[in-house]
Amino acid sequence: MTRRRKTAAQLRSEILTHLSEFGYQLLLLEKAMEQFGENFELKDFKAAFEKKAGIKASDEVQAVERSFSRVQNFMAQLAESGSTSR
């Protein structure tokens, strides 16, 4: 099964959609990071990541990880769509 190549208009639309949602994804990441202090205290995050700070803290780590992954995925999709549109 071969994938159909997207048209320039489809790629442009995909890029614009991702760009319009990107700010929201960053906001979600910032909100998740706030749980670890105003300046994102790495020592607090590390303790939670290593499961030394309880289940609630581990849950907050997962929120940061998920939000970070979504931002990464948005960036990768934008790069892929942009490089394909040439």
Description:
- With 86 residues, the chain is an all-alpha fold.
- It is 76% helix and 0% strand.
- The chain has helices at residues 8-34, 42-49, 55-84.
- The longest helix has 30 residues, at 55-84.
- The model has no long low-confidence stretch (mean pLDDT 89).
Order of helices and strands: HHH
Estimate the helix proportion, in percent.
over 70%
Biggest sheet details: none
Anisotropy-based shape: elongated
SSE-based structural type: mainly alpha
Q: What distance separates the N and C termini?
A: 24 Å
Question: Taking Cα atoms only, what radius of gyration do you get, to the nearest Å?
Answer: 17 Å
* Mean pLDDT over the residues: 89
The number of distinct β-strands equals 0
Runs with pLDDT <50, length 5+?
Answer: none
Q: In what range is the share of β-strand residues? A: under 5%
Annotation field: number of helices: 3
